[in-house]
Amino acid sequence: MKALVYNGPGQRSWHEVPDPVIQDPEDAIVRIDAVTICGTDLHILKGDVPTVQPGRILGHEAVGTITAVGDGVRGVAVGDRVLISCITSCGRCEYCRQGHYGQCLGGGGWILGHLIDGTQAEQVRVPFADRSVHKLPDNVSDEAAVVLADILPTAFEVGVLNGRVSPGDTVVIVGAGPIGLAAVATSKLFSPARIIVVDAADSRRKAALERGADLALGPDEDVEATVRELTGGLGAEVAIEAVGIPATFELCARLVRPGGTVANVGVHGAPATLHLEDLWIKNITITTGLVDTSTTPRLLSMLAAGRLTLPGLITHRFGLDEMQDAYDVFSRPAETGALKVALFGEKGIE
Protein backbone atom coordinates (compact mmCIF):
# COMPACT_ATOMS: atom_id res chain seq x y z
CA MET A 1 0.00 0.00 0.00
CA LYS A 2 1.00 3.67 -0.17
CA ALA A 3 1.31 5.96 2.84
CA LEU A 4 2.56 9.40 3.91
CA VAL A 5 5.81 8.82 5.80
CA TYR A 6 7.59 11.27 8.11
CA ASN A 7 11.30 11.25 7.33
CA GLY A 8 12.47 13.76 9.91
CA PRO A 9 11.83 17.50 10.42
CA GLY A 10 10.70 19.13 7.19
CA GLN A 11 10.69 15.84 5.26
CA ARG A 12 7.77 13.70 4.14
CA SER A 13 7.16 11.24 1.29
CA TRP A 14 4.26 9.30 -0.22
CA HIS A 15 5.49 5.84 -1.14
CA GLU A 16 4.96 2.10 -0.94
CA VAL A 17 5.10 0.50 2.51
CA PRO A 18 4.09 -2.94 3.79
CA ASP A 19 0.38 -3.56 4.36
CA PRO A 20 -0.66 -3.58 8.04
CA VAL A 21 -1.44 -6.92 9.64
CA ILE A 22 -3.25 -8.07 12.77
CA GLN A 23 -0.73 -8.03 15.63
CA ASP A 24 -3.06 -8.45 18.61
CA PRO A 25 -6.47 -10.15 19.06
CA GLU A 26 -8.07 -6.75 19.70
CA ASP A 27 -6.81 -5.19 16.43
CA ALA A 28 -8.79 -4.24 13.36
CA ILE A 29 -7.51 -3.45 9.88
CA VAL A 30 -9.41 -0.58 8.26
CA ARG A 31 -9.41 0.48 4.62
CA ILE A 32 -9.22 4.27 4.52
CA ASP A 33 -12.19 5.87 2.75
CA ALA A 34 -11.67 9.45 3.99
CA VAL A 35 -8.80 11.02 5.90
CA THR A 36 -7.68 14.49 6.82
CA ILE A 37 -4.56 16.38 7.86
CA CYS A 38 -4.29 17.92 11.32
CA GLY A 39 -2.37 20.97 12.49
CA THR A 40 -0.57 18.55 14.79
CA ASP A 41 0.85 16.84 11.69
CA LEU A 42 2.37 20.18 10.68
CA HIS A 43 3.83 20.53 14.18
CA ILE A 44 5.37 17.06 13.77
CA LEU A 45 6.92 18.08 10.46
CA LYS A 46 8.39 21.17 12.12
CA GLY A 47 10.07 18.94 14.70
CA ASP A 48 7.83 20.10 17.56
CA VAL A 49 6.92 16.51 18.57
CA PRO A 50 10.23 14.68 19.04
CA THR A 51 8.52 11.46 20.17
CA VAL A 52 7.55 10.89 16.51
CA GLN A 53 10.39 8.94 14.94
CA PRO A 54 11.45 9.07 11.28
CA GLY A 55 9.75 6.33 9.29
CA ARG A 56 6.40 6.83 10.98
CA ILE A 57 3.22 6.94 8.88
CA LEU A 58 1.40 10.10 9.94
CA GLY A 59 -2.29 10.74 10.54
CA HIS A 60 -4.75 10.10 13.35
CA GLU A 61 -8.23 10.94 12.00
CA ALA A 62 -10.10 8.97 9.35
CA VAL A 63 -13.22 7.13 8.28
CA GLY A 64 -13.00 3.68 6.75
CA THR A 65 -14.32 0.17 6.27
CA ILE A 66 -13.14 -2.74 8.39
CA THR A 67 -11.44 -5.45 6.32
CA ALA A 68 -10.11 -7.72 9.09
CA VAL A 69 -10.46 -8.14 12.86
CA GLY A 70 -8.59 -10.07 15.52
CA ASP A 71 -10.16 -12.93 17.44
CA GLY A 72 -10.75 -10.71 20.46
CA VAL A 73 -12.87 -8.07 18.67
CA ARG A 74 -16.57 -8.31 19.53
CA GLY A 75 -18.22 -4.94 18.86
CA VAL A 76 -17.38 -4.41 15.19
CA ALA A 77 -17.04 -6.71 12.21
CA VAL A 78 -15.65 -6.93 8.69
CA GLY A 79 -17.64 -4.64 6.41
CA ASP A 80 -18.59 -2.12 9.11
CA ARG A 81 -18.17 1.53 8.18
CA VAL A 82 -16.45 3.24 11.10
CA LEU A 83 -15.02 6.46 12.43
CA ILE A 84 -11.43 5.98 13.60
CA SER A 85 -10.88 7.98 16.77
CA CYS A 86 -7.63 9.90 17.17
CA ILE A 87 -7.41 8.32 20.65
CA THR A 88 -7.27 4.60 21.33
CA SER A 89 -8.26 3.11 24.66
CA CYS A 90 -7.27 -0.09 26.39
CA GLY A 91 -10.36 0.26 28.59
CA ARG A 92 -8.66 -1.38 31.55
CA CYS A 93 -6.13 1.03 33.06
CA GLU A 94 -6.93 3.55 35.79
CA TYR A 95 -7.26 6.48 33.39
CA CYS A 96 -9.46 4.63 30.90
CA ARG A 97 -11.76 3.50 33.71
CA GLN A 98 -12.19 7.19 34.57
CA GLY A 99 -12.89 8.14 30.94
CA HIS A 100 -9.50 9.83 30.49
CA TYR A 101 -8.62 7.82 27.39
CA GLY A 102 -6.02 10.32 26.21
CA GLN A 103 -3.88 9.35 29.21
CA CYS A 104 -4.24 5.57 28.67
CA LEU A 105 -1.49 3.57 30.37
CA GLY A 106 -2.28 0.27 28.64
CA GLY A 107 -0.87 1.01 25.20
CA GLY A 108 -3.48 3.48 23.99
CA GLY A 109 -3.88 7.24 24.09
CA TRP A 110 -2.65 9.25 21.12
CA ILE A 111 -0.63 6.59 19.36
CA LEU A 112 -1.85 6.64 15.73
CA GLY A 113 0.57 8.68 13.66
CA HIS A 114 2.61 9.25 16.81
CA LEU A 115 3.90 6.06 18.40
CA ILE A 116 2.52 3.63 15.80
CA ASP A 117 1.69 4.02 12.11
CA GLY A 118 -1.29 6.23 11.39
CA THR A 119 -4.17 6.84 9.05
CA GLN A 120 -2.67 8.77 6.12
CA ALA A 121 -2.42 5.55 4.15
CA GLU A 122 -4.54 3.17 2.16
CA GLN A 123 -4.98 0.95 5.23
CA VAL A 124 -4.34 1.23 8.96
CA ARG A 125 -4.13 -1.10 11.94
CA VAL A 126 -6.27 0.13 14.83
CA PRO A 127 -5.52 -1.37 18.27
CA PHE A 128 -8.29 -1.88 20.85
CA ALA A 129 -10.84 -1.73 18.04
CA ASP A 130 -13.92 -2.25 20.22
CA ARG A 131 -13.15 0.99 22.07
CA SER A 132 -11.31 2.96 19.39
CA VAL A 133 -13.66 2.97 16.40
CA HIS A 134 -17.32 3.99 16.19
CA LYS A 135 -19.90 2.54 13.80
CA LEU A 136 -21.34 5.26 11.59
CA PRO A 137 -25.04 5.79 10.89
CA ASP A 138 -26.01 5.65 7.24
CA ASN A 139 -27.14 9.29 7.27
CA VAL A 140 -23.71 10.61 8.31
CA SER A 141 -21.39 11.05 5.34
CA ASP A 142 -17.69 10.24 5.36
CA GLU A 143 -16.90 13.94 4.99
CA ALA A 144 -19.09 14.94 7.93
CA ALA A 145 -17.82 12.10 10.09
CA VAL A 146 -14.10 12.67 9.58
CA VAL A 147 -14.15 15.93 11.56
CA LEU A 148 -15.42 13.95 14.58
CA ALA A 149 -12.20 11.93 14.69
CA ASP A 150 -10.27 14.76 16.34
CA ILE A 151 -11.07 18.43 15.79
CA LEU A 152 -14.66 18.45 17.02
CA PRO A 153 -14.14 16.50 20.27
CA THR A 154 -10.85 18.36 20.84
CA ALA A 155 -12.51 21.76 20.53
CA PHE A 156 -15.46 20.62 22.64
CA GLU A 157 -13.58 18.84 25.43
CA VAL A 158 -10.29 20.73 25.69
CA GLY A 159 -11.73 24.12 24.75
CA VAL A 160 -15.42 24.46 25.58
CA LEU A 161 -15.86 21.98 28.45
CA ASN A 162 -12.49 22.71 30.08
CA GLY A 163 -13.22 26.41 29.63
CA ARG A 164 -16.58 25.96 31.39
CA VAL A 165 -18.48 27.96 28.79
CA SER A 166 -21.88 28.89 30.25
CA PRO A 167 -25.01 30.77 29.14
CA GLY A 168 -24.36 34.51 28.94
CA ASP A 169 -20.57 34.26 28.83
CA THR A 170 -18.26 36.26 26.65
CA VAL A 171 -16.02 33.71 24.94
CA VAL A 172 -12.85 34.76 23.12
CA ILE A 173 -11.34 32.19 20.76
CA VAL A 174 -7.81 33.03 19.63
CA GLY A 175 -7.18 31.24 16.37
CA ALA A 176 -9.74 30.62 13.60
CA GLY A 177 -8.32 27.46 12.13
CA PRO A 178 -10.34 24.21 12.18
CA ILE A 179 -10.08 23.86 15.97
CA GLY A 180 -11.08 27.48 16.55
CA LEU A 181 -14.06 27.17 14.21
CA ALA A 182 -15.11 23.92 15.85
CA ALA A 183 -14.88 25.75 19.19
CA VAL A 184 -17.25 28.39 17.78
CA ALA A 185 -19.76 25.69 16.78
CA THR A 186 -19.63 23.82 20.09
CA SER A 187 -19.55 26.96 22.26
CA LYS A 188 -22.89 27.91 20.72
CA LEU A 189 -24.41 24.79 22.31
CA PHE A 190 -24.14 26.65 25.65
CA SER A 191 -25.71 29.96 24.53
CA PRO A 192 -22.90 32.41 25.34
CA ALA A 193 -23.75 36.08 25.09
CA ARG A 194 -21.07 36.64 22.46
CA ILE A 195 -18.26 34.81 20.73
CA ILE A 196 -15.24 36.88 19.69
CA VAL A 197 -12.64 35.35 17.40
CA VAL A 198 -9.10 36.68 16.96
CA ASP A 199 -6.99 35.71 13.95
CA ALA A 200 -4.35 37.35 11.78
CA ALA A 201 -5.79 36.07 8.46
CA ASP A 202 -8.63 37.94 6.74
CA SER A 203 -9.97 34.71 5.24
CA ARG A 204 -10.19 33.00 8.62
CA ARG A 205 -11.85 35.96 10.30
CA LYS A 206 -14.44 35.91 7.52
CA ALA A 207 -14.87 32.15 7.99
CA ALA A 208 -15.44 32.65 11.73
CA LEU A 209 -18.19 35.22 11.11
CA GLU A 210 -19.84 32.97 8.53
CA ARG A 211 -19.83 30.11 11.02
CA GLY A 212 -21.40 31.91 13.96
CA ALA A 213 -18.89 34.23 15.64
CA ASP A 214 -20.30 37.61 16.64
CA LEU A 215 -17.09 39.56 16.12
CA ALA A 216 -13.76 38.81 14.46
CA LEU A 217 -10.70 40.90 15.28
CA GLY A 218 -7.35 41.15 13.51
CA PRO A 219 -3.82 42.14 14.46
CA ASP A 220 -4.36 45.81 13.58
CA GLU A 221 -7.12 46.17 16.17
CA ASP A 222 -6.77 46.69 19.90
CA VAL A 223 -8.14 43.33 20.96
CA GLU A 224 -7.71 43.90 24.68
CA ALA A 225 -9.46 47.28 24.63
CA THR A 226 -12.34 45.91 22.53
CA VAL A 227 -12.93 42.96 24.83
CA ARG A 228 -12.84 45.22 27.90
CA GLU A 229 -15.29 47.64 26.29
CA LEU A 230 -17.74 44.86 25.45
CA THR A 231 -17.57 43.39 28.97
CA GLY A 232 -17.85 46.50 31.09
CA GLY A 233 -14.11 46.55 31.69
CA LEU A 234 -14.06 43.02 33.14
CA GLY A 235 -12.70 40.83 30.35
CA ALA A 236 -13.94 37.52 28.95
CA GLU A 237 -15.20 34.70 31.13
CA VAL A 238 -13.49 32.21 28.83
CA ALA A 239 -10.46 32.54 26.54
CA ILE A 240 -9.71 29.55 24.31
CA GLU A 241 -6.19 29.35 22.86
CA ALA A 242 -6.34 27.51 19.52
CA VAL A 243 -3.01 28.36 17.85
CA GLY A 244 -0.10 27.04 19.91
CA ILE A 245 2.44 29.88 20.02
CA PRO A 246 3.61 31.91 23.04
CA ALA A 247 2.04 35.20 21.87
CA THR A 248 -1.47 33.76 21.57
CA PHE A 249 -1.35 32.03 24.96
CA GLU A 250 -0.12 35.21 26.63
CA LEU A 251 -2.87 37.19 24.87
CA CYS A 252 -5.50 34.83 26.26
CA ALA A 253 -4.15 35.35 29.77
CA ARG A 254 -4.55 39.11 29.32
CA LEU A 255 -8.08 38.86 27.90
CA VAL A 256 -9.66 36.78 30.66
CA ARG A 257 -11.37 38.42 33.63
CA PRO A 258 -10.70 37.64 37.30
CA GLY A 259 -12.35 34.33 38.06
CA GLY A 260 -12.26 33.35 34.37
CA THR A 261 -10.69 30.43 32.55
CA VAL A 262 -7.98 30.13 29.92
CA ALA A 263 -8.44 26.84 28.06
CA ASN A 264 -5.31 25.98 26.08
CA VAL A 265 -5.95 23.75 23.08
CA GLY A 266 -2.98 24.64 20.86
CA VAL A 267 0.05 22.37 20.47
CA HIS A 268 3.04 24.34 21.74
CA GLY A 269 6.56 23.81 20.48
CA ALA A 270 8.17 26.66 22.45
CA PRO A 271 7.91 27.98 26.03
CA ALA A 272 5.33 30.64 26.84
CA THR A 273 5.68 33.09 29.71
CA LEU A 274 3.17 32.74 32.53
CA HIS A 275 2.88 36.17 34.12
CA LEU A 276 2.14 35.11 37.67
CA GLU A 277 3.12 38.58 38.85
CA ASP A 278 -0.19 39.70 37.30
CA LEU A 279 -2.30 36.55 37.57
CA TRP A 280 -1.64 35.34 41.13
CA ILE A 281 -4.33 37.57 42.58
CA LYS A 282 -6.99 37.09 39.88
CA ASN A 283 -8.40 33.62 40.58
CA ILE A 284 -7.63 32.57 37.02
CA THR A 285 -8.00 28.93 36.01
CA ILE A 286 -5.67 27.67 33.27
CA THR A 287 -6.42 24.30 31.73
CA THR A 288 -4.47 22.14 29.31
CA GLY A 289 -5.37 18.83 27.85
CA LEU A 290 -5.11 16.09 25.30
CA VAL A 291 -8.53 15.14 24.00
CA ASP A 292 -10.05 11.99 25.51
CA THR A 293 -12.74 11.59 22.81
CA SER A 294 -15.13 10.56 25.58
CA THR A 295 -17.73 12.86 24.00
CA THR A 296 -17.45 11.40 20.50
CA PRO A 297 -20.56 9.16 20.81
CA ARG A 298 -22.58 12.14 22.04
CA LEU A 299 -21.35 14.39 19.24
CA LEU A 300 -21.96 11.68 16.65
CA SER A 301 -25.50 11.20 17.94
CA MET A 302 -26.15 14.94 17.76
CA LEU A 303 -24.76 15.10 14.23
CA ALA A 304 -26.94 12.18 13.09
CA ALA A 305 -30.02 13.80 14.67
CA GLY A 306 -29.36 17.15 13.00
CA ARG A 307 -28.74 18.89 16.33
CA LEU A 308 -25.16 19.81 15.50
CA THR A 309 -24.11 21.47 12.26
CA LEU A 310 -20.56 21.80 10.97
CA PRO A 311 -20.84 24.34 8.19
CA GLY A 312 -18.02 24.35 5.68
CA LEU A 313 -15.11 23.11 7.78
CA ILE A 314 -13.84 21.08 4.80
CA THR A 315 -12.72 23.57 2.16
CA HIS A 316 -10.49 21.44 -0.10
CA ARG A 317 -10.90 17.86 -1.35
CA PHE A 318 -8.36 15.50 -2.88
CA GLY A 319 -7.90 11.91 -3.87
CA LEU A 320 -5.88 9.84 -1.43
CA ASP A 321 -2.96 9.65 -3.87
CA GLU A 322 -2.83 13.48 -3.91
CA MET A 323 -1.56 13.53 -0.32
CA GLN A 324 1.48 15.67 -1.08
CA ASP A 325 -0.66 18.29 -2.83
CA ALA A 326 -3.08 18.29 0.11
CA TYR A 327 -0.22 18.93 2.55
CA ASP A 328 1.03 21.78 0.39
CA VAL A 329 -2.40 23.44 0.34
CA PHE A 330 -3.11 22.86 4.04
CA SER A 331 0.30 24.22 5.12
CA ARG A 332 -0.28 27.56 3.35
CA PRO A 333 -3.72 28.67 4.57
CA ALA A 334 -3.07 32.39 4.14
CA GLU A 335 -2.50 31.81 0.42
CA THR A 336 -4.89 28.94 -0.26
CA GLY A 337 -7.76 29.75 2.11
CA ALA A 338 -7.64 26.19 3.42
CA LEU A 339 -9.41 25.40 6.67
CA LYS A 340 -9.61 21.62 6.66
CA VAL A 341 -8.69 19.32 3.77
CA ALA A 342 -10.20 15.91 3.16
CA LEU A 343 -8.78 13.11 1.03
CA PHE A 344 -10.90 10.27 -0.28
CA GLY A 345 -10.00 6.74 -1.30
CA GLU A 346 -11.52 4.98 -4.28
CA LYS A 347 -14.69 4.10 -2.37
CA GLY A 348 -15.11 7.74 -1.26
CA ILE A 349 -14.67 9.00 -4.83
CA GLU A 350 -17.35 6.60 -6.10
Automatic annotation (TrEMBL):
SUPFAM superfamilies: GroES-like, NAD(P)-binding Rossmann-fold domains. Keywords: Metal-binding, Oxidoreductase, Zinc. Its cofactor is Zn(2+). GO terms for molecular function: oxidoreductase activity; zinc ion binding. Residues 10-343 form the Enoyl reductase (ER) domain. InterPro entries: ADH-like_C, ADH-like_N, ADH_Zn_CS, ER, GroES-like_sf, NAD(P)-bd_dom_sf. Belongs to the zinc-containing alcohol dehydrogenase family. This is Alcohol dehydrogenase. It comes from Kribbella pittospori.
